[in-house]
Write a structure and sequence with these properties.
globular; 267 residues; alpha+beta; four-stranded antiparallel sheet; single chain; three-stranded antiparallel sheet; 9 helices
Length: 267
């Protein structure tokens, strides 16, 4: 079945073309008991799949937590909000060689959702189907898995019925879609007031190396401060103020990013 990706995952993918796979995913399949009845999810934390990604989608509801660790910027024509996790292409400074996310930094929902994802069913308008990325090393066969591994396996199905683990994954993915739609509406209201501005950032690492980060947008703080009372009220009613303030506060986290880069270089 040909899948259509949700707007959340299209926005996360900066590649050209509507059929490009969403970030992280390479072989998603719609979950069903006939095909995946013997499969389950290994209960271990492994974020190796995110090791080479320097920008990760984020939604408004998690920005208060994310802004403490990462700069939040906006990318692409859709001005999709992302956290910056690296200063170089192909490098996530918060995932180590063992696939661990550096504590106590916040792990974004887009990452925690993997290997699950919702896809639009082209045969039923508006219907979303829960899929799992078969390329994920955490998706294992309960029968064929090595007895030497200590991983506990949460089955996807109990007979023909989805297990609690599968229902929780579906609920998480559904909530992500709800949060994404709310975030999209906030971004559109901000854009309607012409508050976005292209920006680049110069990062100087310990030792003097200077890197230029480009191709992203930020909120123009001067333009924001000059908004009329009517425009400010419009943003407040839309719920966009939290997003705005979290983004502006996250500029302090460029320092955290430089610190992480220095630690990586020293290691």
């Amino acid at each position: 079945m040909r899948k259509g990706w949700t707007m959340a995952d299209k926005a996360a993918n900066t590649k050209a073309g509507n059929d490009a796979m969403p970030l992280f995913y390479s072989r998603p399949e719609a979950l069903n008991p006939a095909r995946h009845g013997s499969l389950g999810l290994a209960a271990r934390s492994d974020f190796s799949f995110a090791r080479a990604v320097h920008a990760i989608p984020v939604v408004a509801s998690e920005m208060p937590a994310a802004m403490r660790s990462y700069p939040i910027v906006f990318i692409g024509p859709a001005k999709a909000p992302v956290i910056i996790t690296g200063v170089r292409q192909g490098e996530n400074l918060f995932v180590d060689t063992d696939g661990r996310w550096t504590a106590p930094h916040y792990v974004p929902a887009y990452v925690r959702r993997y290997p699950f994802i919702l896809a639009e069913d082209p045969t039923t308008a508006g219907r979303l189907t829960l899929c799992v990325d078969r390329a994920s090393e955490r998706v294992v066969d309960k029968v064929l898995s090595s007895p030497l591994r200590d991983d506990k396996i949460a089955p996807f199905f109990n007979g023909a019925e989805p297990t609690e683990a599968t229902r929780e994954a579906l609920a998480f993915c559904n909530q992500f879609q709800i949060d994404f739609r709310a975030t999209r509406e906030m971004v559109e209201r901000i854009d309607a007031h012409r508050l976005f501005a292209p920006r680049q950032s110069k990062v100087t690492l310990e030792g003097g190396e200077t890197l230029n980060l480009t191709d992203f947008q930020v909120i123009d703080e001067d333009a924001f401060n000059k908004l009329s009372d009517e425009a400010f009220l419009d943003l407040r009613k839309s719920g966009a103020l939290t997003l705005l303030y979290c983004h502006l506060a996250s500029t302090n986290s460029w320092t955290s990013l430089v610190h992480q880069a220095s630690l990586r270089k020293a290691g």
